Amino acid sequence: MSDLIFKDEVFAxxxxxxxxxxxxxxxxxxxxxxxxxxxxxxERKIIAAPQKEVPVFYKGRQLKKIYIADFLVYGQIIxxxxxxxxxxxxxxxxxxxxxxxxxxxxxxxxxxGARSLEWKRLVKTGKSPSTTDLQK
Length: 136
Fold this sequence. Notes:
By secondary structure, this protein is an alpha+beta fold. Helices cover 34% and strands 35% of the residues.
């Protein structure tokens, strides 16, 4: 079995998200969590670009349309945040599509809307992206 890619980086990202959820709990709108997570990333010296424009490709061509990632962390990891009662396969598919269209290998989906923080690690490997659900 191979090692997880960006294991330490994901650990740091999720640790920051856990602190935000611990401080705020659930019930706020997504932009509130976005701003708090930006602060937490900065305090932890996690290199994160909020609302980062990411080019989208189709058959090798860059589209005029762009995807705006909630965060691009360490220049390599797409972080998508939600404030929903629970995550569904729709949110998984959204992140996987972002990975396919942008060429990035790893996405982290974080949901602040549930009583306990939910997060998923989504990996694009070869032609079939997969989900590694590490915590619900």
